[in-house]
Fold these 3 entries.
Entry 1:
Amino acid sequence: AYSLRKWLQVHSDFHFIVVNEKNYQLNPDIRLEIDFHRMAELACELEQTPDAGRLELCFAMLQLYQGDFLPELSSRSWTAAFSDQARKTYLMAANLAAEYLLERQNRADAAKALEIANRATLVEPYNQRAQVNLFRAMRALEMKSAVVRQYPIVTDLFFNRTGTALPGEVLSIYQWAMDTTGHAMEDMLRIRQDLNAVSKNDRPGQGA
């Protein structure tokens, strides 16, 4: 509490934390809605909400998450606990939101799912569920070249860190992308070879 109070005093003239009988407490003159507490409330509400209303709750949680909790104080054990819980809640909401959007099977929602899943993998690259959702979104948007580029990077990442492979669904998406992308590359190579052969054989004679 002392470190937090000191940090707040540097960034604001207002005393958010005061001392009362040798104990630190929030200034009773202000009303605060703490995003961490609000995310926890929304997570509890999510568990009791039917599927039809869950996506909006996920969006609300995603808007609240602004990254690690007090990164300037990340070495303190109490901030690490808050940050870890907030990250887990965010990832749960991000994964659910991406999955609900992909179920709608239209490009606009797939594009939104791609955005959410991509951010989730940046927050936690080793979250398998987020990586699967990212590949599902790329598949829905027919981003074949992106799948081909991303697959070896992500598989190496998981193997080097955990010694495990991604689910078979991701491999199936990669094979889908390779089947079409690979054929297209082979066709382009064959056309280039044919053009080179024509260029050599049908080159105009001197003086033509």
Note: The chain is about 70% helix and 5% strand.
Entry 2:
Amino acid sequence: EKNEYKTWLRYTWSQIQPGLSPWKLLKASQIHLMSVIAGEIGLRLQEMLGLNPEHFTLSENICLVIKGKGSKGSGYRKRTVPTSPLLNSTLRDFLAQFPRQKESPLLQNPEGQRLGTSTAHQWMDETIQGIQAAGLPIQIEQKGFGWHAFRRTATRLYLEQSSDILKLMRQRGWAWATTASHYIGDEKQKRPMSRPPLYIRSHGHGD
């Protein structure tokens, strides 16, 4: 799985090419950044799209994640997630090339507004098509595959380094152990993976 994740990142990085129009360059750079964020810290798509530069404190390797639209109530939850060296360096490079106000959207559309979910899903589909056309060795189950798939990838990479499940649940924002079990069952039982590494089920438990 780690090799497939690295192959995915090499592909998205390769799409950031000199000579692209300003928007195409920003788009390619954002797809790569989104891949790194999703794969390194396993955010939900809405959480990732809600990020601002001010949510990162790279000197302390921390990302503040907000789930929910309101400022309070049951739909509004905050948590801090540790960042990785790869995420830190990727984000620094991105912001050096595409400066942002600290309170502005990190991921933007051509009008400078916050990137929408439909556009993010479209970018995922285009990236999958490009990877398949290039014949890269990544197993992708088209049905149900999306940005959420990297949430499983990030969890499996975490479990290579730690067995602290409670800490993992806090980082992923899981309130229930039953939710976590759908991500960590194969690893805890040391069984061969029962599905392609980046595959996420199209229905059922998807949080």
Note: Confidence is low (pLDDT under 50) at residues 187-206.
Entry 3:
Amino acid sequence: LFHECQRLTAVSMLGISYRIMMRHPSPELLALGDELPNLQRLYLRSVKPLFGEIITFAALCKGRMNQQQAERIDELVAIARSMTEVIRLQRQLQTNLLTALGCGSDILQLRYRALQRRLLLLNRELRTQLELSDPEQLRLQLALLVERVLLDSRRDREDIELLIRSNKIDAMAAASLMNDAQTLRRIQRQQLKAISALFVNFVIEREF
């Protein structure tokens, strides 16, 4: 499910293949697509059926498990649900992203391209971190990613405030950009918490 969600992110949020997202040697220079497929259709075709199979399998397994095992299964289902929440948030972000990329404002296009690129970089880094064999090292790297997400969020707010004071965007554009920057943060938050719970049995305590 995690892999499929990452594939949908590459195709529907970045306009590139999963392979390119993960393997391109210079992601900061990678040209992102302008025409993005409908994420809702992709979700219904792949992620939703897969999630349905997961919860069905979990329900059948719990009938033969003790309480401790059943509680762990519930935790894993909750993690899977959080991954589907990532897709829901991306559907919301995709709509506004397409609107911004189609408008005539270079300022908005630049900011939304930056949001796309941060989504790309986090997904690459998560995949890289999962190759670490030491759980403690993975925990440390995930904690560093959390701090970076928080720093990016503060910079987003400061950047938008500067654009407002410079009279470069109006109130509607500022509201859209602020909301979508927060949506990106929620996407990143869900991804980081899911990976932490799945692979290092670690709960991120820092609120972000």
Note: The mean pLDDT is 90.
